[in-house]
Amino acid sequence: MKSATIIPIQQLQRTDIDFHVERLDATAPELLCGVHTHQYFELVWIVEGDGKYEVDFKQYVIKPNSLCFIRPGQVHRFLLDDVQEVYSICFTDAFFAASESESDWISIAGLKAIFADRPVMPLQAAYVGDMRDVVGKLLKEFAARDEFRLLLLLKYFRILLIYLSRLWGGQQEQAPSPEAVVVRRFMELLEKRYRETKLVTAYASMLSVTPNYLNGIVKRSTGYPAGYHIRKRVILEAKRMGHYSEAGMKEIAYDLGFNDSGHFSKYFKSFCGTNFTTYMSQVYEKLAVGG
Prior knowledge:
Shape: globular
CATH architecture of the largest domain: Sandwich
Number of domains: 2
CATH topology of the largest domain: Jelly Rolls
CATH superfamily of the largest domain: Regulatory protein AraC
Helix content: 40-55%
Oligomer: single chain
Number of helices: 11
Order of helices and strands: EEHEEEEEHEHHHHHHHHH
Number of strands: 8
Distance between the termini: 36 Å
Structural class: alpha+beta
């Protein structure tokens, strides 16, 4: 099967803990490298700077003290002017694996809910001082190399999560039910396997449940069955590559695990109501008129 990296992928700067925090300047790759993606979470705090943040086909206006949330796999870029002060906090799920307590599951679930809810959120003036304090502590401990480094990073990161939860206004997360755990594992598997695995039966087998059970619990949790989420994830990636790369339909089809472009086109039309060629023609028309 032919495969190609069509959209540039940034790697997490090598650390021993799947976590990275730094102050960015105007020459930082994350701010200058254009359209790209990465397989980790990132929180970008723009303290001083203006411009736009584009993620998955949509642009958002950036003003001073904006928080930008980037999930794994999202295609994004920053178009900033007069960058003065910007902080980046990057981490993976593995960062939370240092401790398997119930509170860790609650923390990561709450964090993912924030990242899923909105790409940009203003930081209220009342929280700026607190954010500076906790980010400063994260920077200090990240640079340290003693035996308590990971413990303190986790503690300060949870404090940051509390501040974000207050700003977000979401409900307090509870310990996950057995069904919720299976749904979470399905979504994680889908993110890793959607290119080569597109059948509910395959995911159900990997999760040691029946296809009907998996469809049922995913629908109760999200409003849509597992099969819908599989198709939606494949189509999202196709749209990303159509928007943000010069790859043609055949190359995109191969990259997404289809043996031929005709099968891919039918798959796309069954979900979107139009074939891929027509969809991209509409995209080009909008770009031509500045839409």
